[in-house]
Amino acid sequence: MIGRVGAVLRALSAVDEQGASTSDLSRATGLARPTVHRLLTGLADEGYVDRDRRTGRWYLGPELYLLGEVAARRYDITQHARTSVHRLAVATGESAFFSARRGEETVCLVREDGDFPIRSFVLYEGARFPLGVVSAGIVVLAMLPDREVDEYLGRVDLTARWGRSHSRAAVRERIAQTRELGYSVNPGLVVEGSWGMAAAVFGRSGEPDWALTLTGVESRFRADRRPELGALLLKEAHALTNRVA
Question: PANTHER family, alphabetically (predicted)?
């Protein structure tokens, strides 16, 4: 039951400000619609979700906000991260992001667009991707111990949703490249022409708990510019890691 509740809340957190219907959440979680409706009704009674009576769409509720405010005192570095995201957006003109690792996913928490007029919209606040997908997921996976990487890739098939470019061999190749460079590169693997780069931010335990990302169109991520972008990402990621330590 707890797992089902968690799945519903995670699915609801991934939608935009338009909210989600019961059917939307049923599809996203793989749970039967009556089950999802029953869970949502119970969560609404406790204030964890809210429903627009006019449209019938669901949203995260006020009780989660209050709980999050308390939890943030221990876990949240978002306010510090906003400064790094802002500097990256201003310095590069690209869209900059801060994402957190949650289990086997990365969740985008902060976005700020630079002044370059053409943007990529693969990432947005609340977007979730499995480890190994998008640049944040690549760099977090690459910075985990080999044992954890092997266990994850031995159990998860990313090709079912993300295609052959996310085969185990392809992901391992990107992991090796990321470890060599210190930052990851996503050469339009999720949406053609939309590139991304990311650097890991480490928590007190030494684990890659977060990532800073830059995204944009392919022409802005030329081979001669990527080292410059990578250096900026690593500088900000190192500074943010030091703030956490």
Answer: HELIX-TURN-HELIX TRANSCRIPTIONAL REGULATOR, ICLR FAMILY, TRANSCRIPTIONAL REGULATORY PROTEIN
Please give the Cα distance from 87 to 239 (Å, whole number). Answer: 12
Instruction: For residues 54 and 103, state if they share a domain.
Output: no
In contact, 97 and 123? CB cutoff 8 Å? yes
Among candidates 73, 71, 72, 46, which has minimal Cα distance to 60?
Answer: 46
> Are residues 127 and 216 located together in one domain of the fold?
yes
Q: Is 69 inside a domain boundary? A: no
Q: Which strands, in side-by-side order, build the sheet including 95-102?
A: 128-130, 105-112, 95-102, 208-217, 194-202, 184-187
Structural domain including 158 reads 74-244
Tokens of 123: 């990432």
Based on the fold, state whether residues 142 and 227 are members of the same structural domain: yes
Domain boundary among 13, 30, 60: 60
Using DSSP, state whether 217 is helix, strand or coil: strand
225 shares its domain with 112: yes
Contact, 228 vs 88, CB < 8 A? no
* Largest pairwise CA distance in the chain: 56
3-class DSSP state of 7: helix
Q: What is the pLDDT of residues 52-67, one digit of tens each?
A: 988 999 999 888 877 8
Whether 194 and 142 share a structural domain = yes
Q: Would you say residue 180 lies in a domain? A: yes
**Cα separation, 17 vs 161, whole angstroms:** 25
pLDDT tens, 84-143? 999 999 999 999 999 999 889 999 999 999 999 887 777 888 888 999 999 999 999 999
CA distances from residue 101 to 106, 109, 154, 165, 170 in whole angstroms, order as listed: 4, 10, 20, 22, 21
